[in-house]
Amino acid sequence: MSTATLTQTWYMTQRQLMAVLRQPAYLVMMLIQPAVWLFLFGNLFKKVVELGGFGTTSYLDYLVPGIVVMSALSSNMWAGMGTLEEIERGTLNRFLITPVSRSALMNANVVQQGLTTALQSLVIVLLGKLGGADYPGGVLGVVILIVASVLLGTVFGALSNAIGMLVRQRESIIGINTFLLLPLTFLSSAFMAPSQMPGWMRDTADFNPLNWAMVAGRSALAADADWGTVLTRGGALLALAVVAVWLSTRTFRSYQRSV
């Protein structure tokens, strides 16, 4: 990627960030909703650790990475709605007649979502700490958890953008997101230790990118981190993110030819 493309990507990212900052209600909900999940589920299921297999005596310790990753998924899955809004307003088409890089137009949305996800993840981690969660992996473990959540967000944010340009209907995006969110969440170790899950769910979770991010984050936060697991799951997420961004860019070029 050239220096000019990077500069244009950052310029377009700033534009996206300014649009987010002009929506205080969205910012408040982005931070409050994960807090509700964290403390609601944390109190509702806190005795489930007595079943064993969680690697901790505090369910909140186990739950924080799950809420971080689940929040990254749920917020980034709606990125395509922003792309669709740009199409409906004609803003995206106007940018097509400018010399701005086509990659910059698509990547700016992904970068903005990544920065927002990182902030959201950090807030959840801090709230968990205030609630009594312990992070034996220290700052490095927290950073790896946030990076894993950003990579997962990049995967689904880029795919959501691609879907937005393909279907160009809000109802379709809402239907797809609603269909995928809960199965992806519950076919993972977000709330339950793998040893307590049915065998078929445990096997399915091994192929779930959401679970890759959780496993990488939890492994990094453990007192005795399994770096092999962190690198394996993190590498898989990175590869998937690269493919998703490439697919999003290809879809954008197809959209460009259609207008």
What is the number of beta strands?
Answer: 0
Mean pLDDT across residues: 87
Q: Alpha-carbon distance between the termini?
A: 26 Å
Order of helices and strands: HHHHHHHHHHH
Helix content: over 70%
Q: Structurally, how many domains make up the residues?
A: 1
Q: What multimeric state do the chains show?
A: single chain
Taking the sheet with the most strands, its summary is: none
Q: What portion of residues belong to β-strands?
A: under 5%
Helical run tally: 11
What sort of overall outline do the alpha carbons produce when their principal axes are compared? elongated
Structural classification? mainly alpha
Q: Specify Rg, calculated over alpha carbons.
A: 19 Å
Contiguous uncertain segments of 5+ residues: none
Would you write up a description of this structure?
This protein is mainly alpha-helical. The chain has one domain. The protein is built from eleven helices and no strands. It has helices at residues 3-21, 24-44, 59-76, 79-89, 91-95, 102-130, 138-167, 170-186, 199-205, 209-221, 227-258. Helix 2 packs across helix 6 (102-130). The radius of gyration is 19 Å and the shape is elongated.
